[in-house]
Structures are given as C-alpha cells and as structure tokens.
Write a structure and sequence with these properties.
Layout (H helix, E strand, L loop, with lengths): L1 E4 L9 E4 L9 E11 L1 H8 L14 E9 L9 E4 L9 H4 L23 E5 L3 E3 L4 H4 L2 H14 L7 E5 L4 H12 L3 E5 L9 E3 L1 H11 L5 E6 L6 H7 E9 L12 H6 L3 E4 L5 H10 L7 E6 L3 H7 L8 E5 L2
Parallel strand pairs: 8-9, 8-11, 9-10, 11-12, 12-13, 14-15
Antiparallel strand pairs: 1-2, 3-4, 3-6, 3-15, 4-5, 5-7
This protein binds zinc ion.
Length: about 325
Amino acid sequence: MRALFFNENGIDNLKYGELPEPSLTEGEVLIRVVKAGVTQLDYMTVSSMKVSPLPHVPGSEFAGIVEEVKGKASVNPGDKVAVYTRTFDGTCSFCREGKEMLCTSGKRIGIDENGGYAEYVKVPSNLVVKADLHWDLMASLSISALAPYHALKEARVGKGATVVVFGASGSTGIFATQLAEIMGATVVAVTDHDFKISRHTVSYSQAEDYVRALTDGEMADVVVNPLGAKYWDLGVRLLRKSGRMVFFGTLTGSKVTLDLSSAYLSHVSFIGTFRGSFQEFKELAELCRKCKPYTWREFSLEEGKDALLALKSPERKGRIMLKVT
Ligand SMILES: [Zn+2]
C-alpha cells in the first residue's frame, strides 16, 4: 500500500513509498483511509516523539471506509466511519468513569500504533463510529474537534456565556469557536492570521479592549487556550470573577507564573484537559453537522512533508488536510 513513514525522527525523514498492508487479528477492522487531518501533534510525532512500531506511519486523525472486519463489530464493509484514535479497554477505573482518553492501557493511534497517513490502517473495532459528514469533518473529529469539545464541556460553557478562543485559525481553534457557538455562547475568536471565523474576530493585541467593551467591563466566562504559555497572562486578564481558563496544549511553552492571591480572590479556575471521551466523540458525529471544516489547503499523500511544513506557514488560513484516497 502507499504510505508515509519514517524510521528516525525528523520532518526530512518522512518518506512516501510502499509498505505491506496491515493484516487483521480478531476484533479489528481494516479502514481504507479517505482523508486525514494534519495537526501540530502529527508534526511533533514525526519531528520528535518516541513512536512504535518502526518504520512508523503517523496520522493521529483520519476517516475512511471499512474494507474488512474480523470478528464481531458494529460496522460492515462499505460503511463510512470516523475513528476515535486512542485505544481503551473499557474496564479500568478511568474507562468506568467514562474517561476513555485516560485509560491506563490505552495507546495513541498514530504514535504508539501506526496511524492514518496510509491507504489502509487497522484499528480495534470498538473505536469506529458510523457517521455521514463532509470527509474533512469526519477526519477532524478525533482530535481537532474532540479536544476543544471536551474542554468546553469541562469549562461548563452554556447559553449566554462569553467565551474567548485563542488560536482561532488553528485546527482546534476552528472547532472550539464553532462548537462554543453551537452551545449557545458568544465567542471572541483571537488570531493574528487573516482569518474571519466569528463575528467577533480580533488580534491578540486587540483582545483585552474588545472583551472589556463587549462585556461592559465584566470580562469573559471562559478562555480556551490550546497554545500554552505565551498567552497565559493575557488569558488570566480576560477572565471575569469566577471565570475558567481551559488549556490542552503547550505549543508556545509550558511554564507559567501565577499570582495565587488574585487567582483565589477572583475565584477563577484553571482546567487542564486531554482529548475527550468516547461518548463525546459520538456526540460530535451529530453536532458537527452544523460545523464547517475551514480547509485552507489539501495535499496528496505523496506531498505529506509539504503538508506538515505548511502548518508553520504565516499565510495559513484554516485547516490542512491530506487526501489519501
Ligand atoms: Zn481503561
């Protein structure tokens, strides 16, 4: 099969070529990949993360058509499926709490197992969900949409809330903005790229004045920060009393300082989140009927390296996708 793979970390080491097709064991499904998302996680996977097996096929979010099923499964060959890209046993204490993303025996597909940057990928059959959305949305559900959806739920975003989204033109920001609006919030989308996703789209330097004016000085209920340290202090300034900052990425750094006095006196919360639950993943297959993929550029599998490099482009306006089939 055609695939992107590497034996040693480094974007330049990502090769396009032929690999043997995966063979199924009991309880697995073979998926013919149609589309795969290109995210910062994929970039880090190729450039610096410890992976297995070698040669390794990256690709942490993807969707496709079921080609073959071995054993019992809720899907059949020909079904259009999205894939929850972290395995789980369903029996550990976290799984029993409905937090499959924290499963003690879970593996990350695309990192600890081969991922979706190939014509075919095999996954445990309990990870696939039948859905019928635009292929770019199908391929975005497992990380780009799920991470912010879970974060918004943990931050108790509801009708009438004011939510600020940092990195609004990035993969998770695009979905954070749309999902918060679907959940009834007023969303201030913050990005320095030329990318208008919400009625209230502003740059980082404008954000504080804008949110102050929009909320008559009260500031925001929730700040979604997928970017990490660089915008931490701004995020703190944007929170109203009793506000919540939710964070799930450290692209711009992972160390921050925090004035505990003003934090507790303002009754603010800082909530770290990681991916999302399988139940939330299934909810997205419905909720995202109202989403747009905001795809900026699509690359062929052969152009995988260019697709990863395009993540860093200052011209970038939206998502980057790989068309596999
Ligand atoms: Zn578990």
